Amino acid sequence: MSEALINGLAGAGGGIIAQLITYPLQTVNTRQQTERDPKKDKSKSIGTLQQMCQVVKHEGWERLYGGLTPSLVGTAASQGVYYYFYQIFRNKAEVAALEQKRLGIGDGSVGMFSSLIVAALSGCVNVLLTNPIWVVVTRMQTHKKESRRTPPSDVLLNPTEQAILPAVEPLAYGTSDVIQEVYGEAGVWGFWKGVLPTLIMVSNPSIQFMLYETMLLKLKRRRAQSKNVSNGVSALEVFLLGALAKLGATIVTYPLLVVKARLQARQVKNGDKRHHYKGTLDAIIKMIRYEGFYGFYKGMGTKIVQSVLAAAVLFMVKEELVKQTRFLLTKNATNSVKPKHV
Known about the structure:
Layout: H1 3-33, H2 48-59, H3 68-102, H4 112-142, H5 159-164, H6 175-186, H7 195-200, H8 203-225, H9 235-264, H10 280-291, H11 300-337
Keywords: Membrane, Repeat, Transmembrane, Transmembrane helix, Transport
Subcellular location: Membrane
Pfam family, one: Mito_carr
C-alpha cells in the first residue's frame, strides 16, 4: 500500500470521526453565517448554546444533524482526496529538495514556502472535485423546518384565497430534493456556487498545514536534541498542534467562509434584493453596504470552537491510523519473509 493511499484513507477516517463529534456546531455556525437580516445587530445576537436549544425546541433534534449523510460523504471524500494528493505533491517536493541539496542548495528538507504550495495545490484539486457535495450540505443545514397552518381538506378556497395561502414546505427535505432544487435554479453550474471564494479559501488549509508541519518539525528536532526524551510525538501533542494551526488559519480566512456560505444557501429571487447575490463580488459589496464589516464575522466564535476541535481530533485520529496501518503492514511483511522450518 502506497504512502499516499495510507494517508488518504487515514485522513478520511479522521475526518468522519471529527465531523460526527462537531456536526451540531457546524449546523449552527452555517445558520449564523447565512443570517441576512441587516436589522439584527450584534447586541441582539444569541449565543451558540442558546441557538442550539432553540433549534431543538422549535424544529427537533434531527435539525442539528440536517445534511449529516452527505456531509459525512463529503468529509470522507474531501479528506481522502486532500491527503492523497497532499502526500503525492509532498513526495515530489521532498525529491526536489534532496536534488537541490545535491547541488549545494538547502539542507534537503521541505521549507515553509514549498509546504504552502503543496497544501494549496491539494486544496484546489479537493475543491473542484467536492464542491457539489458542500452545496447540498449547506442547503440542508440552513433549511428550517416550519409548521404552517393549512386549511382542512374539506374546505374549498377560491383562487384569490389560494394565491395568498403560504406554500407548505415538505416535512422531508432530503438529498434528492436539494439536488433537484439546485439544478432547477442554475442547472449543473449551480453545484459549483461559491467555488471562487472556496478556491481562495484553500489558503486556510495551506496556512493550517504550513503552521502544523513547521511546529511539528521544530518539536521533533527539539526531541532529537534531547537524549532523555523519546523522539516520538504523543497523540495529545498532535491534538494541540492541530488546534493551534487551525486557530491561526481560521482567523485569517473566516470572511471568505461566510461569503461562500451565503452563495451556496438558498436565495429567494423574489424577496429582498439585499439578500440575493449574483456572484462573489456582488455578495461582498452588498454585505459591506447593508451589514458592515461585522457581517463577514458572523458566527466566528462558533466556527473557531468547531473548526479547532474538529481539526485537532482529525490530526490526532489520522496520525494514529497512519501509525497503526504502518505497524500492521510492517508486521505482515516481516511474517511473510520468515523462513519456514521443515
